[in-house]
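Could you help me review a protein record that somebody else here produced? What it holds is a sequence and that sequence's fold in token form. I have pasted the whole thing underneath without changing anything:
=====
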Amino acid sequence: MNIIIMKNLFRSVLLASVITLTGVGCLKDEGFEDQKYGTQIQEVKGVAFNQAAVSPVVLGITSQTTSQTVDGPVITLEQEGTAATDVTVNIQVNNTLVTDLKYTPLPPSVYTISTLTPVIPLGQKSTLIKITIPNSSTLDPTKTYGVGLTITSVSSGYTIAANSKDVVIAFTVKNKYDGKYRVTGTFVDLTNATFTSALPNDVELRTEGPNSVVVYRLINGAYSPGYLFLAAGAGTFYGSFGVRFIFDNNDNLIRVENFYGQPSPNNRFAFIDPTGSAEGKNKFFTADHSIKAKYTLNQPTEATVRSRFDELYTYLGPR
């Protein structure tokens, strides 16, 4: 008798559960079904861009006339185990993704993609496409470029992971002078003998144009254009004074300017010191990627030299 009662009770609970679940099933959660959020438990075999979640993927390339090849996106199988057969993935360029980010689409004439039909081989979980730029010297270093890619179809038996089908590979263009450097040399302020050199210190030379860089120093915890020195032994810096180096096509340093204006609001100029050129300085040396720069801070007029700088920039590596 107790067994029969328990069976009837179980049937009642099961029926109630079915009714409840049927009612909930009428309320379609499109965000969940579109894989925009929530844990997706599914038996389908998906194909995705591995870096979609961190798109745009920003890469730094050097402005040069010789070819550069960079790794593009990785295409992966979103499943347990490896591919049971070759999986062909069809991709198309989609630069709407680029313009949505306010980037500039990389002109089709300046790059090639290794393939738009990559194959994840039998027994593998992923494959990679590459992007080659034969001549990046034609690109504007002040812009961020991008290539947008969308997975449009995959081999039979596989599906596209809807929330991982788009990716943007973005490019910032660095000229050859760009990088991290250690600065040594001399500094003298002709107006105040207590102002002495704080060298050596490490700086970043950041691309501003095809042949120009701005010197960034760590000042008050952040990198900014400026010049550090010691005032009676205590660290300080010149306000509204930082330098821009401009080179010619033969790597000669032909101009030095104050980043904050010529003159800045407090009447500070920066000028190349021509005696450096006569001494074999004021030049970028390709052999060791170093720079020798000799320049002045002039204040309050163009003709009044206040400070002299004679510096060696030793290359530490890319930034």
Residues 1-29, 35-43 have pLDDT under 50 and may be disordered. The chain is about 10% helix and 45% strand. Helices lie at 2-25, 30-33, 96-100, 274-278. The two ends are 81 Å apart (CA to CA).
